[in-house]
């Protein structure tokens, strides 16, 4: 029988997926024994509509969670600006940590967190959801196997249409949309291309509705073989359906688009009720012996966005799986993200 991990959640966030992460812990009751949750900062007011996710579980104080040695793991799910602060507390108390992406806005604090986790040897797992997207994982493994040849460029889009309240909130983050969603895309570029020689940030405000927050982000990452870019917007109608990842290599080109697609009615009936159940699609183009482009198009099996993520975290905590994302990589990613934000 699999040993259950005693776990608690610290915090809720306004515009990320803290409730869904907790729901996933509940879903996998064979892996996790949920001890309770703590609300920090002013979440009782700012996240009042999300507290329902905790129904049936005891509310604890932060100190109760940190000082209970039987709670071996925590999910840190506060608003982005507070993430590093509470992850640092958890690390100092020897907890395994799953943290919402990308961390707080202070580089020195993030560097201290990395050093604390390095010293205590606990799992530090960040919630970059595309790391568990099946076609993105396949693409990155294909790159490692040399099946693309030299990868000249990576193009990544992640946009949506946000209401004014959310776009006002972007002002709480460095470079707004770049920090908030761009972190996912920078992660993908770095996994494929490694550290860039130079970063050119181009974040600005659309000015829509008179809001001056940075709701549009673009960054060019320079490599010896060319430029890769990440682009995101909070004012793009239908932006979610145009989220995509394009890899251009000298052996093939791959387009994954959309990165996630909700289920059709037929798929819902066959699969059953499941929040964030989805598919993705890819088009691969290679050259045949005559030098003509050959197209291969596929649709993925149905997957649930957070299932593999939290199952992997459980396996890491139990020592059954090594975290493929090293502390050195997470620090490189964070530093590069700040460069993309112009910080």
Number of domains: 2
Low-confidence stretches: none
Strand order of the largest sheet: 7-8-9-6-10-11-14-15
The helix/strand order is: EHEHHEHEHEHEHHHEEEEEEHEEEEHH
Would you give the CATH topology of the largest domain? Dihydrodipicolinate Reductase, domain 2
Helix/strand layout:
Blueprint: E1 5-10, H1 18-27, E2 32-38, H2 43-46, H3 62-67, E3 73-76, H4 83-92, E4 96-99, H5 107-120, E5 124-126, H6 134-144, E6 151-157, H7 164-169, H8 177-180, H9 182-193, E7 198-201, E8 216-223, E9 226-233, E10 244-249, E11 253-256, E12 261-262, H10 265-271, E13 277-279, E14 281-287, E15 293-299, E16 303-304, H11 307-317, H12 327-340
Parallel strand pairs: 1-2, 1-3, 3-4, 4-5, 6-9
Antiparallel strand pairs: 6-10, 7-8, 8-9, 10-11, 11-14, 12-13, 13-16, 14-15
Helix pairs in contact: 4-5, 5-12, 9-12
Q: Could you explain the architecture of this structure?
A:
There is one protein chain. Helix 4 (83-92) runs parallel beside helix 5 and helix 9 (182-193) packs across helix 12 (327-340). The strands form three sheets. Strands 7-8-9-6-10-11-14-15 form an eight-stranded mixed sheet, with helices on one face. It has a five-stranded parallel sheet with strand order 2-1-3-4-5, with helices on both faces. It is built from twelve helices and 16 strands. The protein folds into two domains: 5-128 and 309-324, NAD(P)-binding Rossmann-like Domain (Rossmann fold, 3-Layer(aba) Sandwich), CATH 3.40.50; 134-259 and 261-304, 2-Layer Sandwich (Dihydrodipicolinate Reductase, domain 2), CATH 3.30.360. The mean pLDDT is 97. The protein is globular, with a radius of gyration of 20 Å. The chain has 343 residues and is of the alpha/beta class. It starts with a strand and ends with a helix. The relative contact order is 0.14. Helix content is 32%, strand content 24%. It has helices at residues 18-27, 43-46, 62-67, 83-92, 107-120, 134-144, 164-169, 177-180, 182-193, 265-271, 307-317, 327-340; strands spanning 5-10, 32-38, 73-76, 96-99, 124-126, 151-157, 198-201, 216-223, 226-233, 244-249, 253-256, 261-262, 277-279, 281-287, 293-299, 303-304.
């Amino acid at each position: 029988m699999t040993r259950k991990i005693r776990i608690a959640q610290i915090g809720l966030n306004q515009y990320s997926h803290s409730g869904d992460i907790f729901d996933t812990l509940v879903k996998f009751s064979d892996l996790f024994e949920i001890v309770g949750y703590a609300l920090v900062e002013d979440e009782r007011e700012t996240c009042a509509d999300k507290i329902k996710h905790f129904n049936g579980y005891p509310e604890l104080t932060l100190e109760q969670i940190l000082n209970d040695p039987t709670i071996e793991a925590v999910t840190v799910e506060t608003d982005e600006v507070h993430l590093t602060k509470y992850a640092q507390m958890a690390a100092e108390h020897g907890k395994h940590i799953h943290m919402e992406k990308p961390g707080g806005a202070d580089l020195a604090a993030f560097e201290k967190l990395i050093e604390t986790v390095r010293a205590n040897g606990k799992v530090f797992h960040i919630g970059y959801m595309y790391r568990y997207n099946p076609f993105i994982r396949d693409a990155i493994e294909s790159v490692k196997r040399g099946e693309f040849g030299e990868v000249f460029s990576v193009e990544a889009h992640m946009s949506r249409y946000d209401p004014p309240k959310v776009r006002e909130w972007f002002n709480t983050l460095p470079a707004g949309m770049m920090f908030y969603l761009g972190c996912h895309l920078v992660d993908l570029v770095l996994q494929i291309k490694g550290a860039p020689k130079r970063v050119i940030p181009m974040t600005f405000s659309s000015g829509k509705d008179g809001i001056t927050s940075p709701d549009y982000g673009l960054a060019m990452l320079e490599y010896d073989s060319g430029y890769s870019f990440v682009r995101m917007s909070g004012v793009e109608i239908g932006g979610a359906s145009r989220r995509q990842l394009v890899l251009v290599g000298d052996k093939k080109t791959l387009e994954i688009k959309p990165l996630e697609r909700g289920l059709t009615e037929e798929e819902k009936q066959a699969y059953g009720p499941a929040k964030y159940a989805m598919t993705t699609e890819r088009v691969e183009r290679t050259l045949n012996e005559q030098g003509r482009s050959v197209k291969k198009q596929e649709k993925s099996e149905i997957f649930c966005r957070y299932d593999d993520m939290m199952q992997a975290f459980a396996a890491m905590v139990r020592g059954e799986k090594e975290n493929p994302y090293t502390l050195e990589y997470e620090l490189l990613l964070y530093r590069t993200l700040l460069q993309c934000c112009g910080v």
